[in-house]
Design brief:
By secondary structure, the chain is an alpha/beta fold. The protein contains 13 helices and 10 strands. It binds iron/sulfur cluster (SF4).
Length: 342
């Protein structure tokens, strides 16, 4: 038995959006079959005595029978209760009048909604016309049921000025005051996001140090811990440590609708793949889980951060990164470098 609880996070239904920043990566929607959930739990059951099962990896409650689905997730879990987090489907909020009452019933009191600017930019980045209006409508529906919306915004060079307008819109709508009226806090926060999955394609327009609008700075997450790529290259060039990803007190496995298994480290691409539940033997796949044995982590163990920074870093770039996101970005560049054997 592996003495840690296991979270199985399965893409059973897909996602209505195709966000340009999606770190998970875009995958075709494909509804998994009844019984696939039980097969997945049974695969791991001999090795773990605590399992939380989530039938969604991308969009929560995307299936029409979301209430039965939630109850089934509870039943499939073993000595664990899956969490709701501060997540919900804004796609469903605006289409299904029973949904927000359901969220309240299962204990959701805050829901995060993601913006990329005003209407045109948010629609473009979510990948769906109408997304911005749906987010505003979802905000109102949540408030009507005493659930606090949390507006998160991903910033880049293209949308930075519009995000200041988005902040003003939240003030015009008096979201802070309206949440306080029922004892909850409204939050507006901005960040640049990681640079993996689809978001790596936005590297060219990644926000530059010095270009964050002044009015957004109080709302920017951990701004004082960020530095420009140029600064990171300078600081890390001689660093002899290695990029590390570790399972902490729980093991979280993300499972695609083709039964491919990944940790929740970085993106769901080939070199991060642990194995496949249909083609790999359970003992071997669980060994890889326990020993964190995937190609990406082997590369990380064999190359220092200093080597990665010297080889892949741009010493002239003012793009903003946290240290963790920058190391992960460098490692992924190395993984995509065809001249590097894995
Ligand atoms: S970021 Fe989330 S909502 Fe957007 S495409 Fe990816 S999984 Fe779907």
């Amino acid at each position: 038995m592996i003495p840690k609880p296991l979270d199985l996070v399965v893409d059973m239904y897909g996602c209505p959006n195709r966000c340009l920043h999606c770190w998970i990566g875009h995958m075709p929607n494909r509804r998994m079959r009844d019984g696939d959930d039980r097969f997945i739990v049974d695969f791991f059951r001999p090795y773990f005595d605590r399992i939380a099962f989530y039938s969604w990896l991308r969009e929560p409650d995307y299936c029409d029978d979301y209430r039965e689905r939630w109850e089934k997730d509870l039943r499939l879990s073993v000595s664990e209760v899956p969490k709701r987090f501060e997540l919900a489907s804004f796609w469903r909020i605006v289409r299904d009048p029973s949904y927000v009452p359901f969220l309240r019933e299962v204990g959701v009191r805050r829901v995060q909604l993601t913006f990329f600017g005003l209407e045109a930019l948010t629609d473009k980045y979510v990948g769906r016309k109408g997304a911005f209006r749906e987010l505003l409508q979802a905000t109102e529906l949540l408030l009507a049921h005493r659930i606090a919306p949390r507006w998160q915004a991903f910033i880049n060079e293209e949308n930075k000025d519009e995000l200041a307008e988005l902040l003003r819109l939240s003030e015009t709508l008096q979201l802070r005051e309206r949440c306080e009226a029922f004892g909850e806090e409204f939050r507006f926060f901005v960040h640049e996001g990681s640079c993996d999955g689809e978001n790596r394609k936005l590297y060219g327009i990644r926000i530059r140090k010095g270009n964050v609008p002044a009015e957004l700075k109080p709302y920017y997450l951990d701004l004082d811990r960020l530095a420009s790529e140029r600064e990171w290259v300078e600081r890390l060039r001689d660093d002899s440590s290695h990029v590390t990803f570790r399972n902490a007190d729980r093991i979280v496995l993300q499972i695609s609708n083709r039964f491919d298994v990944y940790f929740n480290f970085s993106e769901m691409s080939d070199r991060w793949k642990i194995g496949n539940l249909k083609t790999d033997a359970p003992d071997e796949l669980v060994r890889r889980v326990a020993e964190e044995d995937v190609p990406a982590l082997c590369v990380a163990r064999n190359r220092t951060v200093g080597e990665l920074a010297a080889r892949y870093g741009d010493p002239h770039s003012e793009r903003l990164f946290s240290r963790g996101d920058y190391e992960e970005y460098l490692l992924n560049l190395c993984l995509y470098d065809k001249s590097i054997p894995v």
